[in-house]
Specification:
The chain has helices spanning 32-35, 50-58, 61-73, 87-97, 101-114, 130-137, 140-165, 167-170, 178-188, 196-208, 213-227, 230-240, 259-271, 287-293, 299-310, 315-328, 331-342, 349-354, 359-373, 382-395, 408-418, 424-433, 439-449, 453-468; strands at residues 77-78, 117-119, 125-128, 194-195, 244-249, 252-257. The radius of gyration is 28 Å and the shape is elongated. Residues 9-25 have low confidence and may be disordered. A three-stranded antiparallel β-sheet has the order 1-3-2. The protein has three domains: 5-240, no CATH class; 282-380; 384-468, no CATH class. It is mainly alpha-helical. Helix 16 (315-328) runs antiparallel to helix 17 (331-342), helix 20 packs across helix 22 and helix 22 (424-433) runs parallel beside helix 24 (453-468).
Amino acid sequence: MAKDVFDAPMAPYGDDYGEYAEYDGLGDLIDLKAAFDLPDEMPPLRLPPMADLAGLARTAPMIERLRALAEWLGTGRAVDENAELTGADAAEAATVTGMSAGRLAYLWRLALDAGFVDLDDGETHAIPGELAETFADGDDEAVLEVWDRLFGLVIGTTLEVAASMDPRRAKELYFDGHGAGLAVMLFLERGHGVPVAEAIEVMKNAATEELPPVQAEKAWQSWVRAHGDPARLLLEQMGDLGAVRVLESEDGEVARLTPLGLAALRDQFVDSGVDIPLLPPAEEMTAEDLIAMAPAVSGEEFEAEIAAWLAHRTLESAARDLLSVAADADTDSRMVAITVATGLGADAEPAWRDALDKIQLRAYAKASLSELAGDELPDLDPEDVAWMIIDTLVIDGWDDPDDSALDAVALANRLRQAIPSGQETFAFEMMARVPHPQARDVLTVIGRHHPDKKIAKMARTAAYKASTRHRSL
């Protein structure tokens, strides 16, 4: 079994004590938007009320141990010149918190950095810090501010502290910034979570990227054998604070941010210039709000949001609102809105009929009305088919002409599913005619990547025609 990194000898604080005394969050250490090339806006987020978040913060296992540690100090406990507990006091503190000596040493550092533990004026005794009192008597806002501070410290210092305990093995590995990287990764994948195996692989590659492959593997395996996996260590510490849950799935372990973790990271992202709206209550949500959140939540969460939203409106009015959003949205959002509207059944029929005069909805309106009428196939015009082909290829990712990773064989196979063999010329011509804002991009991708030179040439010709036509809706 791998040795616990926190059971290695603890390097002294020395002159680094208090390094994070003025630290107020992850954003103090790194500009998240610039460092991770984040967009100006992300999908909206639903968070519990502040009181609920504060309740979760108060009961996090790490918080309970920090409070027990502060309470145990009483009127003060002697510390050495490195602000460390010694002898019987260290052993007693480990018992009080239910931790090994090494884990207690890490918790002690965290307590000092976060302000749960302070030193007296002579720096000879440790005493309860002001922040310990905040969790006992502070209001919800104060509690969450302290929790945010701890979260930032856990993200920013866990691997740094681990590396300081085994500098020989750590010298070949690059651990700086991985906590922030993992946190951002978890937030960006908040709807589905991050497979733990993927987090491990990403961190391994980042920590060894400057080393030759053989040396990188040797250095990494040496560290993991001695101390366990760094990604798991971070996830464990974040979970202990109540910021992350690791769940079992059919494909293995998946890590997801809790509401506390989401709220803390959202605050940091917003402070760095990323707009992440908070969703209003279901009765106040618009169809646009509903569709905007879809990319960032799981299928189960989205279904629950749909049900809550529909509970406050008629199905016909819901369908009209959804199709209004679909008419003006990008392709991904349009397809989500159409899918939700399609599930509303016969009550949506009036809205579908009104959508027949909008080219971006006409094909889907015909398909829905045919289904409601019990007809097998809708009567689609060539323009309708062309629009649906473009939408389909955009959803599948065939709309970025500069994407060098596109698979030509996969594109050819997908195109054969959408366009019968021998009908490419006619289909491309119709795709160039319809005023779809991504028609040129899709045709350009086909022209650049299709393995059949004849088909590729036809697509390039159609892409040129699309670029010269007025395509505004």
